[in-house]
Every structure is written in C-alpha cells, then in structure tokens.
What does this fold into?
Amino acid sequence: MSKRIQNNNKFFAVAVAGLLSLTSCATTETKGIDPYEDMNRSVFEFNAGLDEYLGEPISSTYDEYTPELIQTGIGNFFDNLKDINVALNNILQAKYQKGGEDTGRFLINSTLGIGGLFDFATGFGLKKHQEDFAQTLAVWGVPQGAYLVLPVLGPMTSRGVPGVVFDTAFNPATYVGVPIRAIELLNLRANAAGQLKLLDEAALDSYIFTREAFLQSRKHLINDGNVELEEDLDLDLDIDSILFEDELNN
Amino acid sequence: MFKMKNFYLYINFLIGLLVFFPVHAQQQTFTAKQVVEIFQNELIAVMQQGQNLGFKGRYNRLEIAINQSHDLNKIARTVIGREWLNLSVAQQQQLSSVFSRLSIAAYAHNFKEFSGESFTFDSEEEGLRGGVVIHSYLHIPQDKAVKFDYMLKKKSDHWQIINIAANGVSDLALKRAEYTSILKRAGFDVLIKKITEKINQYAQ
It folds into this structure.
C-alpha cells in the first residue's frame, strides 16, 4: 500500500472512529457491547414479527414455486454484482491478490456465466471471498462500537452503519429499481431459512444468541477465518482457574 | 468349590477388563487429535445409522462418545462463570446434569441423517496454558465446508474437548452469553426450565 493511501486510510479511520465515539463509546465503557439492549430487543421483536407475518410467508411461497435452478441463478446474479464491491474492499485492505481474483471472478461470470447467472469462476479455482466496507473499516483500525438492531436491516454495529452506506452505493443492484432489489431480498430470505430454523431450535434467548453469533461471525470474517480461539480459550480458562485452581494442577 | 470360586474370580476379572480397560486405555493413550477424530468418526457412524437408531438410539450412542471426549462438567461451570459460586451444591449438580443432557440431545437431534458428510483434519495448534486447538472441516456435499475448531485441555492426563467453534462461532461463548443473561434477568429456575424445554423439543 502506498504511503499516501495509508495516510488517507488512517485519516478516514480516525474520522469514522470520531463519529462513532459520539454515538456509542461513552456508553460502551459502562454497559459493554450492547448499551442499547432494551431498545435493541424491541426492534428485534418488531423484525421477528415482520418476518413471521410478511417475510416468511412470501419467501416460503417463492421457495415452493421457484425451481432450485432458478433460485441458484438469481443468487449467482446478485453475488456476481457484489463481487465488484468485494474486489474494491480487498484492494482497500491491501489484499491485492484477492482483489485480482475477485475481478477475475466478475469478468468470467459476467461473460461465460451469462451476466452472472452461472458461477464458472469457482470451477476455475477462483474462490468467492466475503468482504465488505465494515470489514475494511475494522482492518483500518476503526473500533467496533455498539451493537445495534436496526428495523428491517437487523443486527449491526456502529461501525457497520457507514459500511452499509458504502456497500449500497457500490452495488449496481441499488440502481436497477425496487422490484429487482425485492427479488434479491426474497432470495436471501429463502436461502436463510435453514439458519433461521437452527436459531429457533438452538436458542434459549433468540436475541442474545443472534447478537453473539453475529458479532463472532463478523470477527471471523474480519480475521479472514483465522479464528482467535486463544482469546476465548484464555478467557474461559482464566475464569475457571480462579474458581478451580486445584483442578488445573492435575 | 475352590475351583468354582476361582472361576467366578476369573469371570469377574474378564468382565472388569471388558468394561474398564477399553475406556481407560483409550483415555490414557490418545492424543488430542485422536480424541477429536474418534469422536468425529462416531458422529458420522451415528449419522449413517441415524434413521434406524431414532432419537433415543442416537442419544445413547452419543452419550458414551461425548462423555469420553468432552469435559462437560467443566463446560457447564465455565458457561456461567463466577455465578457458579453463587449456586448451592444441589443447583450446581442440577445445572451440570441438564447441561449434559442438552449437549447430547442437541447432537442427537442435529446429526440425525447422513448424506455423504465427512470430517478432515486441517492442523493442530498449541494453545496457552497447555491447551491444544484442533482445526478440522466438515465437508457437506453440494455445500460449503464448515470449519470446526476443537479446543482441548488435559485433565488427569486425558485430553478432553472444552469448546467447539463452527465457522468462528464459539459454542462456549454463545452459551455463556445466553446463560448469564438469563440468570441475571430471570434467575436459576427459569434457566433450568428453558434448558429442560429445549431438551424435550430436541427429543420430539
């Protein structure tokens, strides 16, 4: 990364961090990662109701009447458009090789894959990456900020808010009209059915389960899959060693 | 009569060997990687026979495998941290018991059928304080592989799993957040009630 880009990135990171601090940092110190839990829970309930009465019935119907091949094609089409954003964010994070691979993916799938309907690039060894601007901000050193649950959009952090604005602006699907975006959302909801079922089955407290799973999986993406297990393990063992020192000596 | 007594002793010795030795020998000699692989192999075997075994059959098979490979007591008290000390001995035992049943029931419910899944070992990493992390993948046909990271700790010379992370999401951290929140908001009895309800749901 050139010095100029580094300086620009640092400046931007400091500016975003400053903005976030106005909204969250003052409270996160005293109330942890979720200073707005009561409000977040209310929005979480609203979103769950919205999904139960609107999202789930529509996506179930869509899932029932749309052949899997078409669903895959629709998913591929929108994923291909997102690859532009993925490439851009990889470059902003100085991961130039991955950025090149993403660009290759977009070119191959847009041409051979007929506008992105088919994913030939994966077959050519160009794996799909998951990058977005919130991850880029994290790599630049912008603090996570508070956990938020936004109406319709769902779980997020303060750092994710400018991330969503950037990602939306750089996604061509944003500019093709509401009906096309609606199809994208519908397809996403249909594909997430399995995860939502798992959440429903496994969670004792759906809100906490969603929050923790979201924050951990975001951290996993930021670290490119290199899990910082030691941090967790160490924390757990610290607690355990305080409580059960005798057993650790075994 | 003397010979008969010797015969009974001999039979008892044999039974003792059959019942005690395999488990004891396994725990004595297996490395952290082997503990994980033996557990994963049993999980795949149970999935392959999942439909025939039914929930109860899968539960019984996995109960043995999980108790041999996991330190469920340690996991149970770690998920509620310092709150453990505020519980009575009876409450601690109750929590350990329902937590064990929940862990086994969750496996028996979620790993019930086989469609070509397999585990592969990726790497082993030394952790702090003598812990070990085994990185592996669960391959699912027509789907993305899921990264499974097992954290193990030695207890009396036996490696035991104390946490599992799937695609970076730690089961221990997830449960700790949930359980401590419920304890704080609603109390011990509600926590036990919710866990018991979950076990019953899994069994259906």
